[in-house]
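Why this split exists: single-chain examples teach little about how molecules sit against one another. For that reason, every record in the complexes split bundles all components of an assembly together and asks for one structure covering all of them. Below is a record exactly as it appears in the raw files.
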Amino acid sequence: MAFATIDKKILQELEKLVGEKNILVRKEDMAAYSHDEFSSEDIAHFPDVVVKPESAEQVSCILKLANEYTLPVTPRGGGTGLCGGCVPVHGGIVLSMERMNKVIEVDAENLMAVTQAGVTLHDFYKAIHACGLFFPPHPGDEGAHIGGVIANNAGGARAVKYGVVRNFVHGLEVVLPDGDIVHLGGKLMKSSTGYSLLHLMVGSEGTLGIITQATISLLPPPAVMYTLVIPFDSLSKAISTVPDILRNKIIPMAVEFLESKTISITEALLHKTWPCHEGEAHLMLILDGSNEDEVMALAEQVQEIAMARGALDVLIASEKSKQQTILDIRSHIYEAMRAYMLEILDITVPRASIADFVNAVHRIEEEYQIWLPTYGHAADGNVHTHIMKAHFEKGEWKENPGWQRKYPQVRKALHDMGKKYSGLVSGEHGVGFVKKEYLDTFLEQKQIALMKEIKKAFDPRSILNPGKIFPS
Amino acid sequence: MAFATIDKKILQELEKLVGEKNILVRKEDMAAYSHDEFSSEDIAHFPDVVVKPESAEQVSCILKLANEYTLPVTPRGGGTGLCGGCVPVHGGIVLSMERMNKVIEVDAENLMAVTQAGVTLHDFYKAIHACGLFFPPHPGDEGAHIGGVIANNAGGARAVKYGVVRNFVHGLEVVLPDGDIVHLGGKLMKSSTGYSLLHLMVGSEGTLGIITQATISLLPPPAVMYTLVIPFDSLSKAISTVPDILRNKIIPMAVEFLESKTISITEALLHKTWPCHEGEAHLMLILDGSNEDEVMALAEQVQEIAMARGALDVLIASEKSKQQTILDIRSHIYEAMRAYMLEILDITVPRASIADFVNAVHRIEEEYQIWLPTYGHAADGNVHTHIMKAHFEKGEWKENPGWQRKYPQVRKALHDMGKKYSGLVSGEHGVGFVKKEYLDTFLEQKQIALMKEIKKAFDPRSILNPGKIFPS
């Protein structure tokens, strides 16, 4: 790719478009825009300029300019991604959506919200809850922007019963690389009107267009939600309980599996206490329903199944604050482990294969003698294995000897194992920069070729988020 | 488009591929393949040959041949479509999927079914139910094939709570126009691995590839289902009750609105009895839940809301057979009306706009003096208006004078009204042949241009289902 250089003249044009104070060019100001939350800063790249538009029209003008001069444009939401998706690996323009942060409308009649792309999940939940409504997905870090969450088709813990973000996106305003603005879908529950450009845009990681606004369906909140924590003396016992729960026709909102050690580390970071410290591994379930009796009956069924599978105990949290603590700790494990982490993986496998897959992960852990704490979404098959450069023992971090050498080997072994279990490289984080080398392990060449053709149709000059998704 | 003619040599090659008995060339044998269930036979076109492959490999060989010679290929499922999507308007090959009719696997551990594309909905439900599982969508005619249902992103009545067919498709085997076979997704609940070719394929109406196999997620069946029938003295009273139900945080599985007159006509066809004959218009709701108490409590809440809105009565069917009768009558209205119908429309609008939109439909009915019986999916915004050439009065059909002249005017007025209410031309039937002239009323030119680019990337010789979706 032959991109042009951003010179004074271009900077002046950008300034004219968004105003001087919405342009950053000094290195110290741009540092925060050079990386995402991926564990290693090695992948950081500085842009030449950070531009902060406030409207789709401004985004359109910026893209027109970039397209004319062939300048790379890397869109950036909350910067909470985990695979370098918003890192400007070719420099150029970082298009930060932070000023497009208004929830435009919560439409209770249609059970739809219309929001700008730069609204954080935190602010979105707040606006929705204020209207007595509910957006089921909870993709971890609430600093994520709605636009980023859609561009990566995020999932999170609460996707088992209600599905991933894709299921809730009904309309999108998108600025295309040539500056044209399109309005896909709307406040519509059903559509069979031509190819779904909307669903193509979901999960396209900012490479086909810039999402500036979204129409998202909502639900009435469940009347009752309980969170269960169930300790087991081994991870495989914990995970193998899950198919039994599903087979008994119980579909929880969330089913997570976690290792005790990672919970302790996170408790220390947050100064919060997990409800139970028994056992090596825990299941965390969220059950919902229309009344206390119904949810308690479900909880009791889960208890019975879990005890039959060797659970050490079953703790039921019905108070909101206790449930929030549990969700907080679960959501911050990554942060707690990050300092000693090489990478968090995001392999997705069929849900019935999780126990076998995680056992295989532990065989790789044994073989390479490198700590691979693994947690994830037990009922939807999305497994987060952490490749660690250190392990935690008796309250201290100790370096895993030889991690530099082992890292690429372990990484490959884990992904090969994901492939063996009919999985894909990413369940919810996206491919971004970090995982693109694995795309052709998981997808047929023909699929990648078709994706590249689509990319070419949308973005013939390859200005949008270059260097992402595709291996070459 | 310059398509080649199918000559003896090509017929012989096709015969070699699938065997003589799986090829039809005689006019009388091909008549059934010249149309779908669209009301007018005017749109019928004969193919030159009907080919019935039994495997993806055979489909691949047929497409390779067609691509080499530039022959039009029109895929055909159950032929139950309502907009000519499977009509071979350019002649050539009709690729009938009828022999690919095996449900390959119902995987209870993963809550997934793997099925060939030519399985009918009826057989699919049967296989699923036999394993104690549940596939929520019910797109009307159970003679539809799974492949067609996916290719059109069908919806049906039971989409309010559980969503449309798209939400349940997790894996597809697709044969591309050049004969390459790709395997999209899998038994995976989550995926963010490159552009979603899977979701692009859903709703592409057989123009991008031939779906030969699908992996579909299932749910445990609801423990209890009740069907409610609620008569009102006007359609607008009936419809305006629906937002109240949703606002009270009740999400039924289905909410349909119907006019009494169309119900009577259908009762006569099926020799079955609808549970109530009061009032001009009815709501039909399906409520589900985990036990009798819960569903009864919901039913009572609905009753209270409906009575406050002027309902004449509320009938609750809890027996399976009674509920089946109601669903049967609802599913056969189209068939009952068809002989005197010009067209069934499939406009989708925001659900809160249904009452206003249907009122507008009735103003058009008044203005043009042409009967426009309208029913549809009240809680998901999908409205089926029928443009009739006759009306039913005192047990007899009477021709609407001047329908020939009025038809195109009324059709345009209705679609313009759909546009005014921020709708789209199709909620679940697809665009096909019949509705393509309205695509650019509803979609921006740029969207259509991008869709055409995608078409070109997948099918550079335009052999697959030519003459569909796009106005030109």
